[in-house]
Protein 1
Amino acid sequence: MRREEEFTAFAEAGAVRLRQIAYLMCRDWHLAQDLTQTTLTKMYLAWPRITRRDLDPFGYARKVLLNSLLDHKRLRSSGEVAVDRIPDRIPDTVHESVSADIRLTLVDALALLSPRDRAIVLLRYWEDHSIEATAEMVGVSISVVKTQSLRALNTLRAHLGEDRAELFA
Amino acid sequence: MKDFRSDLSDELSALTPPPLGDLVAEATRKGRRARRVRSVGQVAGSALALTAVAVLFGGQLHGTGGKGELAGAAAGGTPAATATASPSPKAATATASPSPTASPSGDQVHVSGAAVLATVLDALPAGITTSDYAANNFAEAHGQYGTESPVAQVNVHTAKGLGMMRIFVGTANPTGKCTADTGCRLDKYGQEVRVDHVSDNCIQNTLVSVRHADGTDVTVQMASCLAWDGKANKPGVVPLTEEQAADLAGNPAFHDMMTPAQGAAAAARFPSLPQIY
């Protein structure tokens, strides 16, 4: 019973953050909600093992979430092509009702990256993980994280324009 | 990158996400239910295994051909009663590749992860040693919007080292047919085979997908590293050749649906399969 209380406390504390990561990865609140719930269900099942091995529960949850997201993208991506433009309608953004404001947001720009590059950028610069930890979580080599994060930042710079170049200083 | 974080935080704060609702409570409910199902499966599996051992032992004592029945079961794709999900290596004992089987009829459910695993182990060529099984059921791992395919995970012991693969069994996208122009070819059953490589993702190093005539889609995802152990994806080797993976994925014993009896038999064969994370 104590374990369940511990899990509930963890889940309540981490759900919002997990859903934010999921949203930044997929840009769909409903999918983000669903993936967060799935992640927490798996965390519930794995909780005895996580506590027994003294693992970092949020790190574990983040890994589960990213695996689910990247698997989801992989299975959906056969007919999906990355394009270098913003879709006509971007749902759920702050600019939805501000038609005059056409400045690209960071959230918009992140959507232009591939799912893996987005994961790398978010883990490195949003979650503040080391290159090594990011490589482990995404399942790529350290050199891939280095090269892809540089390339992804260049892409973001190009889309956001000079006036926001200081973001990546 | 402080500005990156603060800018992104500001943008997120300005969004209006739907309320979290009872997300945590629902996750807990689903977790409890999954744990109950797992426990029932373990008890039922143990009981079935004991019964099978008793019947087998009795058959041997009375010379009624129990051994022949077990060999037939192992070769034909029906789960062997005495096999369990064990971390210790097991050599494949199938004496022949499973022959094409008719799609299961009657009341059907989505094929379970355990049933996928049973088919994989029966379909692998004799002599291949496997271990460290894990599986997820339909929609169990990835939710309503995710990869709804059941999946089995197997470690393969090769001469070059340990390799890991995951086998997804799902329903092929009816509009997603591939052509020779996109690297597809036909196998000996006339089924479409597609091979993809993701060179910088060790889990998805090589993906071999076969689209079966009945609409079942089988993907063998061969990794160049081992599964996440809670801390890292340790290095591994690609477990099969692309040809072996195509043969495995194209095995007609795979179906995306099964009868409840087939599900019970697979659960009995693998009563304590861990989930894939």
Note: Residues 11 and 40 of chain A are 7 Å apart (CA to CA).
Protein 2
Amino acid sequence: MGQVAAAPVGYTVKSEPHYTLYHPRWYRRRMSVWWWLHNRAYTFFVLREITSIFVAFASLLYLWQVRALLQGPQAYEGFLARLKTPLFLTLDTVALLFVLFHAITWFNLTPKAMVVRMGGRRVPDWAIIGVNYAAWIVLSGAVAFALLRG
Amino acid sequence: MASTVTLSVARYRPEKESEPTFQTYEIPFRKDWVVLDALNYVKDTMDGSLSYRWSCRMGVCGSCGMKVNGTPKLTCATFLSDYLPGPIRVEPLDNFPVVRDLVVDLTDFIRKLKQVKPWIVRKEEKPLAEGEYLQTPAELDAYKQFSMCINCMLCYSACPIYGLEPSFIGPAAIALAQRYNLDSRDQGASERLKLMSEDDGIWQCTFVGECTEVCPKHVDPAGAIQQYKLSGASQWVKSLLLPWGTR
Amino acid sequence: MLKRITPLLWLLFSAGGTVAAFFLPIHLLLTGLAFPLGWLEAPPYESLHRLLMHPVTRLYLLVLISLPLFHWAHRFRYTLYDGLQLKHLTVLIAVLCYGTALAGTAMAAYLLWTIP
């Protein structure tokens, strides 16, 4: 009692009761633009979000394919020739890797959003993920069959 | 076995400095000690000015949340032996203003918690004469996981969206809202949805998932938020297709 | 205005993500790698054209092109918002993202429905 400690740094003393000398000067930390490099989980998250760019790339690739198909055999030959160039082979490989990354993370996260209850108990996560992968194999097989059989 | 370990603790004394600094303490190592024991030892014998929050020291009160080597943890549940040989870095939780040393201000969360109405909301109260609200074990199971939250704020520290956008309602508040939405006794889901559909509600979340990773009570707030998005979206579709239907 | 249709945008994102997860990998594997590199016999133009005549194929292709674009639009919008912290450009980003998705959908619909 009766002892006045030093004022906070940068504070100009006015003639007021002493307790206002300790008005809180809270330290607020700012988030850096590189926050997503600070730990593995954040980087994984940003990579997962970046897969959307390659999803869009694949989408536009098929838009192009449909257009070429509808324009006639020569246009389609041109499209096929373009796909054989090293540029597109590289792009397609990178895109495939990112789209696979998207698919795997998507299936693994599905049970978090979709809770299925059967007989009063929640269906375990691995069952839902398993159903997803099974459906993936079946649907991929159907597409491959449709494309290869002609 | 080491006989001592170094603790590197963040200090912030607003009356002396304008930026936080680190101070190191060499403390005895005991294999059954947790970080909280180490902090208490420092405060009792080495530096009485160190400020931090703690209470139950057994992982149920949610007071002692801090960052240990960069990860949000309950210091009463984090063993020194897992961090050998050290040094062990102790810092205040991220995304909250630091009041002093390891103490952060949680007013923002308290305000948001009140906004989500974390209590049973009834359109009509049952008269006392009719007795209690009955609930089957299956109905309890529907929301029990989300009721385990101890408001320790580790999830807010781990959530980068909360760091980037402080107006985001945040994982714990949304998980607690969902705890009441899924409670069979509650009738307040539409009231809560009004708040959650705001720009800072559930739609801000991009499912980073770190909140669930750091939660010491396995509440899974990330799962709660995704389920809330799904139910919110179906509610929206229903209101579009059946505008005359009321809850 | 965007706030009122956020649930719809999220539903489109989810549907797009599901379509992308189930169908894009096999398409990319076949069209992007297996056929150009000769691992598998590429289907001739006539059989693909015949497939395209079927209305079910056209609907499938519309879904395959459109929904993943909406998935990208929503996710990319939030990536720019959070990753690069471009909050002050929020309206512009939203218009560019969803606008591109709409344009892609419109072009796909036009191609698939007007050309015999």
Note: Residues 221-241 of chain B form the longest helix (21 residues).
